[in-house]
Predict the structure.
Amino acid sequence: MKFFLIGIVKFLAPLQLFILFFSDLFFKAIFLNKKNKMIIGVHEIASNISLLSNVFENSISVNFNPNKFYNHNYDFSLNVENNYLRYALTFFYGPILLGYLMNISNNFLYIWETGFLINREMEFKFLKRRGKKLILFFCGDDIRSPKLSFEYSDKLGVDNFLSYVNYDLDKQEKRVKENAEIADQYADLIFNFPICQISYLNKKTYYNPYIYNSKGFSNSVEKYDNIDKYRIVHAPSNPLIKGTMLVRAAIKKLMIQGYKIEYIEIQNKLNSEVVKELKKSHIVLNQFHGLGYAIGLFGVEALANSNCLLTSFSTEKLENDNIYSKLNEACVNTRYWEVYDKLKLLLDNPHQIKKYAVSGYNFAYENFEVNNARKFYNKVFNELIDN
């Protein structure tokens, strides 16, 4: 039934272009004034729509995919729990809204691989013919090639987290090739992490600093004074991919050996509950199969709340001015075979835990705090966006 409905929707995709055409004409007739706005949407991944909306003060946020773990406000959204009903509403709402937005702005920032219309190439072609600027912000499986990723990890002789996923990698391979081709043809600017999101993109891409609101930073180093037990947090979005079994094994062995630790594992909780734990914890275990230098929003949250972060990364092939070259100073590089060893080394040298917490906090604030991140984005965007 699901595939039957998907087939019908794809068959009707040209109808969306018809709706968009008349929506554009209608709003154009109203003589709306174009302003230097940034339209940001439409698929919320790790709060990127919300956070980027804070970077671009004159922006409009659109979210068609509500996330149960976050509670953000958007300028336009569809908060409908039933997926089928939401897709049906989006079919009509998407092109109507796009017709309005393209009459008040020339700049569109797309997060993930979805858009206002079902057919992305059709949407991009329509916008480019009308002189719009397209910025694509890739987040992971929307552009990552399984084939290239396995080739890269095999070359390094390390495990690849894609070995543990339960979705169709052949289908993803075909999809990301198409996404890269469309991006190369239509995008004015592309953000992508080149190694952990290794892709078929040929155009120049920019790395993106994570963004974290000022109020989210908590420089609470006093929690490292007079410690009875070290609080260790692990909050996997996907236990297999994040190495949760390795974490549990390491924790169990350390407890048997008599180390005074308290292990907190968080799954399927609201982001606010996760952050609440991070404010009280000392060590955070992130993920351990990373091939590039992306530490994820959870990693940033851990640093912003003064934690010693253990996570895996590689800083090879970095651009000369890439801020991530200082990751070794901010967190403990921990591969999947090193979880127990690195954690034990820290517990045997507790002064290092606080040292990394302080260094990590400073690194996150200097680069990811919203006002500091804005400097990077302004520098890149000012060369592209209309004034």
